[in-house]
């Protein structure tokens, strides 16, 4: 039962407004900085209204970038980040859903052991296994290409675990009915399980897309070719210039442009994302 008291409603809205302000204000300051000249934010007074250089700054980042900092134009970096994020998200979902399907619906020796071995890898972040992973990628000749950026990151114990838990909630009667109708395992997977999993796949896609988009350490290690720089690597290079003050107006313009694709993906898939998070049973 939910109480409808004016004071509690006011308090709830006040907390929401404060929370949104705390989250949005740094983004607003970044946007304001991207619209001013290079020295406006170094004077000690932070402007709170947009400046006159917004078109100039964004045009510079989209056309020529900051070559003095070793960062190429942001367009190719955004494309590299998009390819990597989509590749990582699609690869993780494809491998995880097939792994969970095999673990739940097939009976083979050491099935439970296989699941727990996958589950244990949850405790091994990329940083722990980064040296042997780099060795394997280098030996396979995948440095400085999209395969090296994407393939080592497409296994996900978390997604496998979530799909397994979802498949366990699917009634056995569905599988028995499909078997009576002559459906094999692949037809059952394609025609019944996949349609039921659409919202879960959408929710995971958004989470994994943002994860792939924000990758910094792994692309930094396997990529030395400027044409394969991701946008996060480019922003770091812009902000870490030697013997000079960073051009924060251009850095902030790059930050705003880098934030747009994940925001657009979340907005476009918001309804499926919420359903995927709240629906636990079919």
From TrEMBL:
NCBIfam families: PRK10973.1 (NF008210). GO terms for cellular component: plasma membrane. PANTHER family: ABC TRANSPORTER PERMEASE PROTEIN MG189-RELATED-RELATED, SN-GLYCEROL-3-PHOSPHATE TRANSPORT SYSTEM PERMEASE PROTEIN UGPE. This is sn-glycerol-3-phosphate transport system permease protein UgpE. It is a multi-pass membrane protein. The gene is ugpE. It is found in: Cell inner membrane; Cell membrane. Belongs to the binding-protein-dependent transport system permease family. The chain crosses the membrane at residues 7-33, 82-106, 113-134, 146-167, 188-210, 216-236, 248-269. Keywords: Cell inner membrane, Cell membrane, Membrane, Transmembrane, Transmembrane helix, Transport. The complex is composed of two ATP-binding proteins (UgpC), two transmembrane proteins (UgpA and UgpE) and a solute-binding protein (UgpB). InterPro entries: MetI-like, MetI-like_sf. It comes from the Bacteria. One of its GO terms (biological process) is transmembrane transport. Residues 78-269 form the ABC transmembrane type-1 domain. PROSITE patterns: ABC_TM1. Pfam families: BPD_transp_1. It comes from Rhizobium lentis. Part of the ABC transporter complex UgpBAEC involved in sn-glycerol-3-phosphate (G3P) import. Probably responsible for the translocation of the substrate across the membrane. Its main location: membrane.
């Amino acid at each position: 039962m939910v109480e409808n008291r004016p004071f509690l409603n006011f308090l709830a809205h006040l907390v929401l407004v404060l929370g949104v302000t705390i989250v949005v204000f740094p983004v607003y300051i970044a946007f304001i900085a991207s619209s001013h000249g290079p020295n406006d934010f170094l004077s000690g007074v932070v402007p709170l209204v947009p400046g006159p250089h917004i078109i100039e700054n964004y045009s510079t980042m989209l056309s020529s970038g900051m070559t003095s900092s070793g960062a190429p134009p942001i367009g190719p970096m955004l494309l590299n980040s998009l390819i990597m994020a989509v590749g990582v998200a699609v690869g993780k979902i494809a491998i995880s859903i097939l792994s969970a399907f095999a673990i739940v619906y097939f009976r083979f020796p050491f099935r439970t052991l296989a699941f727990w071995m996958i589950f244990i890898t949850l405790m091994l972040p990329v940083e722990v296994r980064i040296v042997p992973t780099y060795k394997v990628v280098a030996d396979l000749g995948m440095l400085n290409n999209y395969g090296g950026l994407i393939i080592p990151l497409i296994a996900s114990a978390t997604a496998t675990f979530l799909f397994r838990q979802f498949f366990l909630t699917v009634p056995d009667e569905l599988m028995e009915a499909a078997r009576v109708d002559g459906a094999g395992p692949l037809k059952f997977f394609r025609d019944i399980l996949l349609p039921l999993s659409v919202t879960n796949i959408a929710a995971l896609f958004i989470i994994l897309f943002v994860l792939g988009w924000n990758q910094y350490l792994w692309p930094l290690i396997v990529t030395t070719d400027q044409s394969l720089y991701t946008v996060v690597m480019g922003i770091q290079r812009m902000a870490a210039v030697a013997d000079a003050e960073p051009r924060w107006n251009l850095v902030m313009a790059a930050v705003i442009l880098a934030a747009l694709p994940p925001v657009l993906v979340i907005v476009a898939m918001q309804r499926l994302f919420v359903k995927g998070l709240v629906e636990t049973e079919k």
